[in-house]
């Protein structure tokens, strides 16, 4: 996420009354949005109101529109559903209902409304804004309001936040709730896959999405499903034969399981519904497979929000308040979106119209157009799924003379998503006719020798070898921290000996260093004049050239689980603060984003360091919080300290200082999750991004085919980092990144995109007094 966000831009705001509501279907993360809006509004000197039960509460008014204080939203971030309620409201669809809603708002002095909901809710909100002046005029005319009451409220500010598990809104890559729902689905399919494996069964799993196949597509990618049905891309006319052929082929190769994902809205080219039962019958009758149907239903909606949804809702909620304060009467209502890694504002009306166009386009059978109307990632992910899901794709195969031997190596510590990326790269290679070669156990495995004889742990991989890897944590081909510079001559020799034409390096800062060394060694070792890509994978997210490394999302989810559990353990004693040590090396990314996602009281990072003044101030805040708390707070307080934030103020020392200063009024405990942060299984985001990065990396390596070694070495893109930068996925040349963007001493990027979020953590935790929030 980019720091270009005007979160803390100076505001010339007059004291405003800002209301927030949740509407339409509930989605995990909605509470995080409410918390962020309420606290950001208060921090900026405004009054915050919550409208309970969606538009129903707006129309009914009275107690349904409640002034909300800072402490009222404590503990909201971790809760699923929506704590302020939601409803479908027929009255708001009618002008008389909106008339009552306008009156209720004016009576409380509110003229800014932040709505978190789906496209229906946002359509209603925009209509309300358009009608606002005429509604007020009618209310004055009917003497339900006086002209004085409406003075200064001539415009209604509307800001949209998209809360929906379906991820069906155009103009944003992710809606609040969609990743939590994907977590639920992947957990379920992982469980189903275990039983399918045991009995060699087939499972047809129905997932939500009447008009949008995002959940189905992403769960199919995350779980390595054999076949997929989504509304935007109906299968070919002879799909029954096609599906049976693919599944038969997979079984022949030795695959023991079959998973087919069917979106609720799956249909054929004639818009006839394809039901899970249709698919089951086919698999049972045509292929004789023991096939079961599982309909996941409402479990997909519930549960605690995942780390990403907590972060997204917090960033978007805070930006929504800024959007209100920066709006002029001419500004069109915005919807707060995210494109790749960047929070942006888009015109709400346009986003809603585009979204509604998708359904119309599908109804007109313009499927290709429908696919491209979805977010920027959707069509690309669909292609990645197709390429990596099936072993037999004759139309993808390259001619014999264009095929390469592609080396794949893992370097550094394991990170969630490494295996998914490797599986995708291997599947891509197999599909294209390349030979994927695993260089086991990092560079030390590659250069193993017996006397003069190379004994490298090097082996060609087959599609079947890695068919189950997507959901696995750790590193299936082994990893270690050895760098090529330990024995560059042998590394170069082995590259030639094993006939490696292109190299994919998966890993964190060590992997980045390895690629830098290999690039520089080309001058003396011509065998290294081959194309190479680093695919960043590290929990620390400290690889220059990308704002996102595989494994960092898994880590944040593990950390949040750990902290939620610690907090809960404090619920009986309540007055407890946990000082929790996070990984991250010299980068405070993990600590800061985890702090944002869980509402930590304070975050200590290596970038900022720790000093006694800071501790003093934070202990004062703790005293104040615990003095005020009459037992209403749901749980303990969290302070996150990055492992390298200070040599002096260790986690233990900080806890001891707090304990001593608390003088019995509250207690302090230490929590060190350590390797727990690598996560057991990779999160869905790390899996799907692993697949996308893996495919893209291979496509990049292919572009060098046919070039001479010198031509390759002369092209700066022949050693590149794949990564997300702002709103784009791109490759960046190593040569530039290592020279201009790398802080080698601290093993992190020189400019860390997330640094600005630290202020937001402090603002929303109350650590930063309102007088300092601009
Ligand atoms: P989901 O994606 O979960 O369905 P949604 O926001 O699209 O969420 P809807 O039921 O379509 O859910 O809308 C929620 C509420 O928004 C409706 O009950 C109604 O009160 C209001 N609303 C929807 N469409 C309109 C409209 N065209 N005019 C006025 N109000 C509307």
Automatic annotation (TrEMBL):
<dbReference type="GO" id="GO:0003872">
    <property type="term" value="F:6-phosphofructokinase activity"/>
</dbReference>
<feature type="region of interest" description="C-terminal regulatory PFK domain 2">
    <location>
        <begin position="405"/>
        <end position="774"/>
    </location>
</feature>
<feature type="binding site" description="in other chain">
    <location>
        <position position="264"/>
    </location>
    <ligand>
        <name>substrate</name>
    </ligand>
</feature>
<feature type="binding site" description="in other chain">
    <location>
        <begin position="675"/>
        <end position="678"/>
    </location>
    <ligand>
        <name>beta-D-fructose 2,6-bisphosphate</name>
    </ligand>
</feature>
<dbReference type="GO" id="GO:0005739">
    <property type="term" value="C:mitochondrion"/>
</dbReference>
<dbReference type="GO" id="GO:0070095">
    <property type="term" value="F:fructose-6-phosphate binding"/>
</dbReference>
<feature type="binding site">
    <location>
        <position position="119"/>
    </location>
    <ligand>
        <name>Mg(2+)</name>
    </ligand>
</feature>
<dbReference type="GO" id="GO:0046872">
    <property type="term" value="F:metal ion binding"/>
</dbReference>
<feature type="binding site" description="in other chain">
    <location>
        <begin position="164"/>
        <end position="166"/>
    </location>
    <ligand>
        <name>substrate</name>
    </ligand>
</feature>
<feature type="binding site">
    <location>
        <position position="25"/>
    </location>
    <ligand>
        <name>ATP</name>
    </ligand>
</feature>
<feature type="region of interest" description="N-terminal catalytic PFK domain 1">
    <location>
        <begin position="1"/>
        <end position="390"/>
    </location>
</feature>
<feature type="binding site" description="in other chain">
    <location>
        <position position="747"/>
    </location>
    <ligand>
        <name>beta-D-fructose 2,6-bisphosphate</name>
    </ligand>
</feature>
<feature type="binding site">
    <location>
        <position position="576"/>
    </location>
    <ligand>
        <name>beta-D-fructose 2,6-bisphosphate</name>
    </ligand>
</feature>
<dbReference type="InterPro" id="IPR015912">
    <property type="entry name" value="Phosphofructokinase_CS"/>
</dbReference>
<comment type="function">
    <text>Catalyzes the phosphorylation of D-fructose 6-phosphate to fructose 1,6-bisphosphate by ATP, the first committing step of glycolysis.</text>
</comment>
<feature type="binding site">
    <location>
        <position position="201"/>
    </location>
    <ligand>
        <name>substrate</name>
    </ligand>
</feature>
<feature type="binding site">
    <location>
        <begin position="88"/>
        <end position="89"/>
    </location>
    <ligand>
        <name>ATP</name>
    </ligand>
</feature>
<keyword id="KW-0021">Allosteric enzyme</keyword>
<feature type="binding site">
    <location>
        <position position="292"/>
    </location>
    <ligand>
        <name>substrate</name>
    </ligand>
</feature>
<comment type="similarity">
    <text>Belongs to the phosphofructokinase type A (PFKA) family. ATP-dependent PFK group I subfamily. Eukaryotic two domain clade "E" sub-subfamily.</text>
</comment>
<feature type="binding site">
    <location>
        <begin position="118"/>
        <end position="121"/>
    </location>
    <ligand>
        <name>ATP</name>
    </ligand>
</feature>
<dbReference type="GO" id="GO:0016208">
    <property type="term" value="F:AMP binding"/>
</dbReference>
<dbReference type="InterPro" id="IPR000023">
    <property type="entry name" value="Phosphofructokinase_dom"/>
</dbReference>
<comment type="similarity">
    <text>Belongs to the phosphofructokinase type A (PFKA) family. ATP-dependent PFK group I subfamily. Eukaryotic two domain clade 'E' sub-subfamily.</text>
</comment>
<dbReference type="GO" id="GO:0048029">
    <property type="term" value="F:monosaccharide binding"/>
</dbReference>
<keyword id="KW-0547">Nucleotide-binding</keyword>
<feature type="binding site" description="in other chain">
    <location>
        <begin position="583"/>
        <end position="585"/>
    </location>
    <ligand>
        <name>beta-D-fructose 2,6-bisphosphate</name>
    </ligand>
</feature>
<feature type="binding site" description="in other chain">
    <location>
        <begin position="208"/>
        <end position="210"/>
    </location>
    <ligand>
        <name>substrate</name>
    </ligand>
</feature>
<dbReference type="InterPro" id="IPR022953">
    <property type="entry name" value="ATP_PFK"/>
</dbReference>
<keyword id="KW-0808">Transferase</keyword>
<feature type="binding site" description="in other chain">
    <location>
        <begin position="298"/>
        <end position="301"/>
    </location>
    <ligand>
        <name>substrate</name>
    </ligand>
</feature>
<comment type="pathway">
    <text>Carbohydrate degradation; glycolysis; D-glyceraldehyde 3-phosphate and glycerone phosphate from D-glucose: step 3/4.</text>
</comment>
<feature type="binding site" description="in other chain">
    <location>
        <position position="643"/>
    </location>
    <ligand>
        <name>beta-D-fructose 2,6-bisphosphate</name>
    </ligand>
</feature>
<feature type="domain" description="Phosphofructokinase">
    <location>
        <begin position="405"/>
        <end position="700"/>
    </location>
</feature>
<feature type="active site" description="Proton acceptor">
    <location>
        <position position="166"/>
    </location>
</feature>
<protein>
    <recommendedName>
        <fullName>ATP-dependent 6-phosphofructokinase</fullName>
        <ecNumber>2.7.1.11</ecNumber>
    </recommendedName>
</protein>
<dbReference type="GO" id="GO:0042802">
    <property type="term" value="F:identical protein binding"/>
</dbReference>
<keyword id="KW-0963">Cytoplasm</keyword>
<feature type="binding site" description="in other chain">
    <location>
        <begin position="538"/>
        <end position="542"/>
    </location>
    <ligand>
        <name>beta-D-fructose 2,6-bisphosphate</name>
    </ligand>
</feature>
<keyword id="KW-0324">Glycolysis</keyword>
<dbReference type="InterPro" id="IPR035966">
    <property type="entry name" value="PKF_sf"/>
</dbReference>
<dbReference type="Pfam" id="PF00365">
    <property type="entry name" value="PFK"/>
</dbReference>
């Amino acid at each position: 996420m980019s720091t270009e966000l005007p979160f803390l831009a100076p505001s010339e705001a007059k004291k405003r009354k800002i209301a927030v509501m949740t509407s339409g279907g509930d989605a995990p993360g909605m509470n995080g949005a409410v918390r962020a809006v309420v606290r950001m509004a208060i921090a900026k000197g405004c009054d915050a109101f919550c409208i309970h039960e969606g538009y129903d509460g707006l129309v009914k008014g009275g107690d349904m529109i409640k002034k909300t204080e800072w402490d009222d939203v404590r503990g909201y971030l971790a809760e699923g559903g929506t704590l302020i309620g939601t409803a479908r409201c027929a009255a708001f669809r009618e002008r008389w209902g909106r008339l009552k809603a306008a009156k209720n708002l004016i009576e409380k002095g509110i003229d800014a409304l932040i709505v978190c909901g789906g496209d229906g809710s946002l359509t209603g909100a925009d209509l309300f804004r358009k009608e606002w002046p005429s509604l007020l005029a009618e209310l004055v005319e009917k003497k339900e309001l006086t002209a004085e009451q409406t003075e200064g409220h001539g415009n209604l500010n509307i800001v949209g936040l998209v809360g929906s598990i379906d991820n069906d809104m155009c103009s944003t890559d992710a809606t609040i709730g969609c990743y939590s729902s994907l977590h639920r689905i992947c957990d379920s399919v992982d469980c189903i896959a275990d039983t399918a494996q045991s009995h060699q069964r087939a499972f047809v799993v129905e997932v939500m999405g009447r008009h949008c196949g995002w959940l189905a597509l992403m769960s199919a990618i995350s779980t390595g499903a054999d076949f997929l049905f989504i509304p935007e891309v109906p299968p070919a006319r002879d799909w029954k034969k096609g599906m049976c052929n693919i599944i038969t082929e997979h079984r022949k190769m030795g695959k023991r399981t079959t998973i087919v994902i069917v979106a609720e809205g799956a249909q054929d080219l004639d818009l006839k519904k394809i039901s899970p039962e249709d698919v089951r019958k086919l698999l049972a009758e045509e292929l004789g497979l023991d096939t079961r149907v599982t309909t996941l239903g409402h479990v997909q909606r519930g549960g605690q929000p995942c780390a990403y949804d907590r972060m997204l809702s917090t960033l978007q909620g805070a930006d929504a308040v800024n959007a209100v304060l920066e709006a002029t009467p001419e500004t069109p209502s915005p919807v707060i979106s995210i494109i790749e890694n960047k929070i942006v504002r888009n015109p709400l009306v346009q986003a809603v119209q585009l979204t509604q166009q998708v359904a119309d386009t599908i109804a007109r059978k313009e499927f290709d157009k429908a696919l491209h109307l979805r977010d920027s990632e959707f069509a690309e992910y669909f292609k990645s799924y197709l390429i990596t899901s099936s072993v037999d794709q004759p139309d993808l195969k390259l001619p014999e003379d264009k095929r390469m031997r592609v080396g794949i190596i893992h370097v550094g510590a394991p990170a969630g998503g490494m295996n998914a990326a490797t599986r995708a790269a291997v599947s891509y290679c197999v599909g294209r006719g390349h030979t994927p070669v695993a260089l086991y156990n990092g560079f030390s495995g590659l250069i193993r020798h017996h006397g003069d004889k190379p004994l490298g742990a090097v082996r060609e991989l087959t599609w079947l070898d890695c068919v189950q890897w997507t959901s696995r944590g750790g590193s299936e081909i082994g990893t270690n921290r050895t760098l090529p510079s330990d024995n560059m001559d042998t590394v170069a020799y082995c590259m030639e000996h094993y006939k490696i034409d292109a190299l994919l390096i998966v890993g964190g800062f060590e992997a980045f260093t390895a690629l830098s060394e290999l690039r520089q060694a080309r001058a003396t070792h011509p065998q290294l004049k081959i194309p190479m890509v680093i695919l960043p994978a590290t929990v620390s997210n400290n690889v220059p050239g990308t704002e996102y490394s595989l494994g960092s999302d898994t880590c944040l989810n593990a950390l949040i689980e750990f902290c939620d559990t610690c907090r809960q353990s404090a619920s009986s004693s309540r007055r407890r603060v946990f000082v929790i040590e996070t990984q991250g090396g010299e980068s405070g990314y993990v600590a800061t984003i985890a702090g944002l996602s869980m509402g930590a009281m304070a975050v200590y990072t290596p970038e900022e360091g720790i000093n006694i003044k800071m501790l003093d101030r934070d202990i004062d805040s703790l005293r104040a919080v615990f003095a005020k708390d009459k037992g209403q707070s749901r749980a303990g307080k969290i302070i996150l300290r990055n492992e390298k934030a200070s040599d002096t103020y260790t986690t233990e020392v900080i806890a001891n200082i707090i304990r001593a200063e608390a003088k019995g009024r509250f207690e302090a405990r230490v929590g060190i999750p350590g390797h727990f942060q690598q996560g057991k299984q990779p999160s869905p985001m790390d899996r799907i991004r692993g697949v996308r990065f893996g495919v893209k990396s291979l496509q990049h390596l292919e572009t060098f085919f046919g070039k001479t070694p010198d031509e390759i070495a002369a092209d700066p893109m022949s050693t590149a980092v794949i990564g997300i930068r702002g709103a784009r996925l791109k490759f960046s040349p190593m040569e530039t990144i290592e020279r201009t963007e790398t802080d080698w001493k601290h093993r992190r990027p020189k400019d860390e995109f997330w640094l600005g979020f630290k202020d937001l953590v402090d603002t929303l935790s109350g650590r930063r007094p309102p007088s300092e929030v601009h």
